[in-house]
Amino acid sequence: SHNPSVKSAAPVPVHYRLAPGGGLFFALLGILMLLGCVLLAWLLALRQAQQAGAAIWIITALAYVAAWFFSMRVVRALPTGWLVWTGKVWRLQSDQDALQVSSGKGQSAQLAPAYRSCTLVLDVQQAVLLRLHDGKGLPLSGSNHPVARWVWATRASDQPNWHALRCALVWAQTVPGRADTKASRRQEVVS
């Protein structure tokens, strides 16, 4: 049980490297291969029962190809670069932005958009699926800024900083106003 009168200190700032695809490609590939085997077994069972016409084979093949392309599109759309926890907000920083900051030229560069909330959607210990957002569903800065961003982070992409990232994520889930929790959603519905 969380005691609202006890305030926990925010975890230290973290710069976490995001690998392109970060293993998600191989996870999706495995799922799609398994799905393909199940579909093929189903079609062969229908064929043996003499209920499979050419239309079923074509529709199944088209659905499988569409799932493949959708999965690859999702993987390519995931951000790469750096996931940054500043101690107050989350940012997605490109490699170019990080290079400018480290070379001292970042002072004049425009900061990446800030996300006030981070929802831990899936945690499989070696990888996490995150949803960065402002907590209210509104764009934070500029009209081209997305309302929410999905992030896939794996331990393998930046192992030395994995523990620090997980500490920040756990903290973000437990502090009111920092996570899109079931309790906060219920409270908004009642209000």
Short characterization:
The chain has helices at residues 24-48, 54-77, 95-102, 162-174, 182-190, and strands spanning 14-18, 81-85, 90-93, 114-115, 117-123, 127-133, 148-154. The protein is an alpha+beta fold. The model is unreliable at 178-191 (pLDDT under 50).
Structure description:
The chain is 41% helix and 19% strand. It has 5 helices and 7 strands. The protein has helices at 24-48, 54-77, 95-102, 162-174, 182-190, and strands spanning 14-18, 81-85, 90-93, 114-115, 117-123, 127-133, 148-154. A hairpin with a 3-residue loop joins strand 5 and strand 6.
Count of beta strands: 7
- The residue ranges in which pLDDT falls below 50 over 5 or more consecutive positions are 178-191
What is the 3D form? Answer: elongated
- For this structure, the quaternary state is single chain
Q: What integer value in Å does the Rg equal? A: 21 Å
Q: What is the helix tally?
A: 5
Helix/strand order: EHHEEHEEEEHH
* Structural class by secondary-structure content: alpha+beta
What percent of residues are in strands?
A: 15-25%
Spatial order of strands in the largest sheet: 1-2-3-4
Distance between the termini: 23 Å
Please summarize the sheet with the most strands: 4 strands, antiparallel
Q: Summarize model confidence as the mean pLDDT.
A: 75
Considering DSSP H and I runs of 4 or more, what fraction of the residues is helical? 40-55%
What topology emerges from the helices and strands here?
Blueprint: E1 14-18, H1 24-48, H2 54-77, E2 81-85, E3 90-93, H3 95-102, E4 114-115, E5 117-123, E6 127-133, E7 148-154, H4 162-174, H5 182-190
Antiparallel strand pairs: 1-2, 2-3, 3-4, 5-6, 6-7
Helix pairs in contact: 1-2
